[in-house]
Protein: UDP-N-acetylglucosamine 2-epimerase (non-hydrolyzing)
Organism: Clostridium acetireducens DSM 10703
Amino acid sequence: MDKIKIITIFGTRPEAIKMAPLVKELSSRNEIDNRVCVTAQHRQMLDQVLNLFNIEPNFDLNIMKTKQTLTGITNRVLEGMEEIFLKENPDLILVHGDTTTTFAGALAAFYQKIKVGHVEAGLRTYDKYFPFPEEMNRKLTGSIADIHFSPTIGSKNNLLKEGINEKQIFVTGNTVIDAMDFTVEDGYVFNNEELNKIDYNNKKVIMVTAHRRENWGEGIENICISLKNIVENNKDVEIVYLVHLNPVVKNIVYKHLEGVNRIHLLPPLDTKETHNLMNKCYMVMTDSGGLQEEAPHLGKPVLVLRDVTERPEAIKAGTVKLVGTNLNNIINEGNKLIRNREEYNKMSKAVNPYGDGKASLRIVDFILYYYGLTNNPCKEFL
């Protein structure tokens, strides 16, 4: 084999952020014919990342529809990928994480007997409805995958417990750390003028995101009430809440927090703005999975607004703390980090367990070794 044909598949902004450095690394290797397919499960937010990393897809399924359902997304990805696979006949496809694009892309490849590499493999909560549908997406993808690129030893151990052959698993670190080397800049000036007006040196700026399905309704209500309490009882605090565009989330947030002094309600930012806001902020409160990995890389403590997390390594390392959506928990833990410097330093100075910026390099090196294009076995991230 002189060249490996690989199709890299993703469809949402979080996937794109984590796959972008891998696409760049794949494209730099003469032994690889790399093609990029986007499903555009999320159109606008995906395009922001493609533009930032200067990635032009070879295939664009453009499946996003108003009020799209999980069933509709799955069907459209399956049908679109079948046509591409029949024409291209790749040696390997690469999918990432836990989206519906990931699972449907892997399933479409399985139907054509094409090998599947799963990036960020092995994360588990062991509750199929939390997070929904991500937990089952990643488990089902793991059942199909031929190569499992696990970000940590913990995620590798999860796969071993499920009977995956150890020779099929390779620990890489997380590619999101690679991506941050492209995006974070000293002295960054925001495109959003409201962010430029915030005094990051003299205020404790809390960056907030919360939008997961399991928090819809009472969970989002409690988060908003807690944030209002925190800002009203800590005069040195400002909150920047990046509000998801889904009306189920947006309507609740604006009902509780619109017009509250020192709370800034902004739409989701593009990747570069988000990473640089994170770099300037004091701490992060989120129900996002990706931010649990990204913020510790910048030394920012994270309070996770969920009852379970598929990223226990950060909890063990001390960079992240689970607080759920209980009012008292959020308020108490938030106040502790705001008012107690020793508690803050414990979390901000803990070592990030998720990577060293070389995950993409390890993944590509392993693929070349797997296909016999190099005799040098690569070392795992430990």
Residues 288 and 376 are 37 Å apart (CA to CA). The chain has a mean pLDDT of 94.
